Amino acid sequence: QVQLVESGGGLVQAGGSLRLSCAASGRTFSNYAMGWFRQAPGKEREFVTGFRWSGGSTYYADSVKGRFTISRDNAKNTVYLQMNSLKPEDTAVYYCAAGRVAVINRIYEYEYWGQGTQVTVSS
């Protein structure tokens, strides 16, 4: 059974940093893409960043470019999201997802989702 478990969310002041983790288990993810998404209150879930375990480019939403960095630890099957220079508009529930996607930012192609972790940025 595939499991994605996020951790690392919390409350931080504007300008601060947080690092989210997503521990993946239950199968081999070598043919999968991994993505981070977020959903703010009253808004649709949106793509933040993603990559393919097999290699290739990493993609970021314009709103987070230069501030957020996705990385991975292959040995631990864990994906990280380093978030710097946080803004109040980054406040959302952040989700980790995995899927055999054709397009990295196509949310509906992701098969597996974590439970989400809350990130709150105060002004």
Explain this structure to me?
The chain is about 0% helix and about 50% strand. The chain is globular, with a radius of gyration of 13 Å. With about 120 residues, it is mainly beta. It contains no helices and eleven strands. It has strands at about 5, 10-15, 20-25, 35-40, 45-50, 60, 70-75, 80-85, 90-100, 110-115, 115-120. Strands 2, 4, 5, 6, 9, 10 and 11 form a seven-stranded mixed beta sheet that branches. A four-stranded antiparallel beta sheet has the order 1-3-8-7, with no helix packed on it. The model has no long low-confidence stretch (mean pLDDT about 95). It starts with a strand and ends with a strand.
Notable features of this structure?
mainly beta, 0% helix
The overall pLDDT average reads 95
Major sheet size, sense and barrel closure: 7 strands, mixed
Q: Level of helix content?
A: under 10%
- Could you tell me the strand content as a percent range? over 45%
Q: How many DSSP helices? A: 0
Q: Which structural class should the secondary elements be placed in?
A: mainly beta
Separation, N- and C-terminal Cα atoms: 40 Å
- Regions with pLDDT < 50 over 5+ consecutive residues? none
Strand/helix succession: EEEEEEEEEEE
Shape: globular
> How many beta-strand elements?
11
Radius of gyration: 13 Å
